Amino acid sequence: MLDRELVVTGPLEGRAGPAGEVRAPRQYPNSPVVGVGAVIVQDGVVLLVRRRYEPLAGQWSLPGGRLELGETLEVGLAREMLEETGLDVEVGPVIEVFDRILHDQDHHIRFHYVLIDYLCRPLGGTLQAGSDVSEVAFAAPADLPAYQLTAKATAVIERGFELARRHSWAGAKGMPGLPGPRP
C-alpha cells in the first residue's frame, strides 16, 4: 500500500513547478480543470454552500473544488471539504461525472471544469463557511427550490439521495450536532 500524504501550503495557481511549468489558470484555461464535489447527506438533508468566487459567485451549490497536482480524487475531495465546510468526511461512491463549460460575452471559454461528484457523509469537524464559501446550510429535498440551484446540481443531489438510501452506511448514525431534517 502506498502512503499518500499531501501538505498544501498555499495557492499553487501561477506558481512554477519542478520543470518550470506554471499551473493552468482557472479562468481562460488552456485545458480542462479537474474538480471534485460532494453530496454530503445526513438524516435526510444535504449540505449546500454559497460560492464566494467565480464561477457561480453568490450562488448556492455543492461544496467542492479543484484537484491539486499529486492528489488522488478522494484525498482532494476530503481536503476541499475540510477547507470549505470544516467537516471531515467519508468519501463514498461516485454519483456523476460531467463538464461545466462557461463562456464569456465574446464566446471565449472562461471556465472549463470536468467535475466528479461523490456521495459523502460527515465524520467529524465543525461546520463552518471556509475558504471559498460565504455560507453553509443543510437543506431538505423539499427546500431545494428556495436555494435556486442549477438544474445540474439539483439532479446530482437527487441522484445522491437515491444512492445514499442504497449505500452501506444508510443505517449508520450521523455526526452528532449537525441538523437533521427540518420540520
Describe the model.
Strands 1, 2, 3, 4, 5, 6 and 7 form a seven-stranded mixed beta sheet that branches. The termini are far apart. The chain has a single domain (33-166), classed as Nucleoside Triphosphate Pyrophosphohydrolase (Alpha-Beta Complex), CATH 3.90.79. By secondary structure, it is α+β, with helices and mostly antiparallel strands. It is built from two helices and seven strands, in the order E-E-E-E-H-E-E-E-H.
Describe the main β-sheet briefly: 7 strands, mixed
Number of helices: 2
Distance between the termini: 46 Å
Give start-end ranges of low-pLDDT stretches.
1-18
Number of E-type strands = 7
Strand content: 25-35%
Structurally, the number of domains stands at: 1
List the helices and strands and how they pair.
Layout: E1 33-42, E2 45-51, E3 60-61, E4 64-66, H1 73-85, E5 87-103, E6 109-125, E7 133-139, H2 151-166
Parallel strand pairs: 1-6
Antiparallel strand pairs: 1-2, 1-4, 2-3, 2-7, 5-6
What's the short version?
With 183 residues, this protein is an alpha+beta fold. The protein contains two helices and seven strands; from the N terminus they run ββββαβββα. It has one domain: Nucleoside Triphosphate Pyrophosphohydrolase.
What features would you highlight for this structure?
single chain, 183 residues, alpha+beta, Nucleoside Triphosphate Pyrophosphohydrolase, seven-stranded mixed beta sheet, 2 helices, disordered N terminus
